[in-house]
Amino acid sequence: MNINIRPESRFVQNFTYACQLTDWEKKYLTLYAKGYCVETICIMLNTSSSTLYRKRSGILQKTKFSTIKELIASIKSDRRDENMNQILSTREREVFEVLRLGKSNKEIAEILYISIGTVESHISNIYNKLSLRNKIDLFNRC
Predict the structure, then answer these.
(1) 39-70, pLDDT tens digit by residue?
(2) Is the separation of the CB atoms in 131 and 141 below 8 Å?
(3) With bands split at pLDDT 50, 70 and 90, how would you rate the model's confidence at 7?
(4) Measured between alpha carbons, how far is 24 from 30 in angstroms, rounded to an integer?
(5) CATH 1.10.10.10 boundaries in the chain
(6) Is 88-141 a domain of CATH 3.40.50.720?
């Protein structure tokens, strides 16, 4: 089975280029990040599990991570930060960072020297731009 799997973002492309990963390794990481199990990945990439584990060791050596999960978490975290920086304004990012610390709207207003109404407006914009419904979604995204 020959499949065309593209990395999901420019960050993934830059990361895999910087680590000099092969196309096969990029496909493997993309499938792993999407949650496919080893058996399914072996079928999709037309390889045996022993070959997959051997190549996976090569990926870890190139990237200097201990596990593939750490590597994927790092890619997702950096991609999330990259996306957030493109979507939110500078002031919204400032509010977002203080909000992540668990501060109340009043505390955020005092820290950033803005009115509570402005804080509420920024939080509303953050929720809309990042497709969040509440603070629980916000903390899950962090």
Answers:
(1) 888 888 888 888 888 888 888 777 777 777 77
(2) no
(3) very low
(4) 10
(5) 88-141
(6) no
28 with 45: CB under 8 angstroms? yes
Q: How many helices (H) and strands (E) does the chain have?
A: 9, 0
Going by the DSSP 8-state scheme, the letter that residue 66 receives in this structure is S
Question: Residue 142 and residue 136: Cα distance in Å, rounded?
Answer: 10
CATH number of 10-77: 1.10.10
Confidence of residue 82 (pLDDT cuts 50, 70, 90): low
**Encoded tokens for 67:** 């596990």
Contact assessment for residue 59 and residue 25, using Cβ atoms and an 8 Å cutoff = yes
**Which of 103, 100, 110 lies closest to 130 in space, CA to CA?**
100
pLDDT of residue 9: 52
User: Angle CA(117)–CA(131)–CA(30) in degrees, nearest 5?
Assistant: 145
Read off the pLDDT of residues 22-41 as tens digits, 9 standing for 90 and up: 778 878 887 787 777 888 88
Task: Using CB atoms within 10 Å of the CB of residue 69, give its burial: 0 to 12 exposed, 13 to 18 middle, 19+ buried.
Answer: exposed
Contact 89, 80 (CB under 8 A): no
